[in-house]
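Justification of computing resources. Each target in the renewal requires a structure prediction run like the one illustrated here; the chain below, 123 residues long, is used simply to show the kind of job we budget for.
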Amino acid sequence: MFAGSLILAATLISVAAWLQWNEVSGWGDRGQSQTELDERYHRQRSRSRTRTNIIIALCGVCILVAAFIGPGPVWIAAWLSVTVGLATVVGLAGLDVLRTHRYQLAKLQEIGDRRQVDKQKSA
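Resulting C-alpha cells:
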C-alpha cells in the first residue's frame, strides 16, 4: 500500500505540474484572443485551471502524508481530503464546460453581429 500511495501521489503531483506548465506556456492557442470577450474568457479559464491544478497537487500531497503516517485518524483525514478534493475537481470541470459553452454561444453571436455590420458596410 505504501508503494502504491507513493506512485499515486507522484502521478497526481506530476500531472498537476504538467497541466500548470502547459497552462502558463500555452497549448498553442496563446495570442489568439481578438476581442474583449476572448480576453475575459481566457483570463477566467486560466484562473480556474490554476485553482484546479493546485487542488490536484494538494491531493497528491495528502496522499504522500497518508502514505508516511500510516493507518490512523490522520490517514483517514488525508484520504477524506483527497476524496473531497477530487470531487471538487470534477465539479470545477463541469463549471468549466458551462463557461466554455456560454463563451462559444457568445462568440457565435459576436461573429454573426460582425457579419451583419460588414454586410451593411458593403451594401
